[in-house]
């Protein structure tokens, strides 16, 4: 029993998630550099480094999204959970596109053509909307990971590897808890004065990024477990064990 689409798709997702992990690590480094300089306006060497890290994070995240999308597109053929993961990927992209293109244009229109509304109120509404979109995207991305892991569990069951399937349940629970905490932190941060002006918000964002890195480790380790099993030599060993 072979799953070529699963093997091909998971290898792409693994590569995409590694790029994503590196990107988040760069963002964490940028956040650490920003903490001592919070509130300062002058440009210095640290500010330049933060800019480089932040741009690298954006580029890396974009590449990671593309590679992940290709991987999920391949996966969708082998299991219903993989198909659902791809559907949520499309939803996540749509929310991101809405937040990136539609929301800014809408608030620019409101600011310039509906002068009766105070600028402060418009900015507050824009900030809340952006934060809500961030939470929705984080939730969608977590569901994608859980769906992929459930699909992997399903493949493990088909291969007769129940131990790895049970391990997937524990990994999903751990991933869900970490995701809930980091999304909760991201929801709280805006109420502390903004990500760029508040030292408390910056300090709180550090554990959030650390939790995201932990999520990557759990997700990548389970994907790697499946990729290792789907190597031809491992498949033959499993089939021989089942035929005994």
Can you characterise this structure?
With 244 residues, the protein is mainly α. It has one domain (4-243). It has helices spanning 4-34, 45-75, 80-113, 119-158, 162-188, 199-229, 232-243.
Provide a quick synopsis of the model:
This protein has 244 residues and is mainly alpha-helical. The protein is built from seven helices and no strands.
Keywords:
mainly alpha, 7 helices, 84% helix, 244 residues
SSE blueprint:
Layout (H helix, E strand, L loop, with lengths): L3 H31 L10 H31 L4 H34 L5 H40 L3 H27 L10 H31 L2 H12 L1
Helix pairs in contact: 1-2, 1-6, 2-3, 3-4, 4-5, 4-6, 5-6
What does the average pLDDT come to?
A: 79
Ends distance: 16 Å
Tell me the count of domains. Answer: 1
State the helix count.
Answer: 7
> How many β-strand runs?
0
Percent in strands: under 5%
- The protein's oligomeric status is single chain
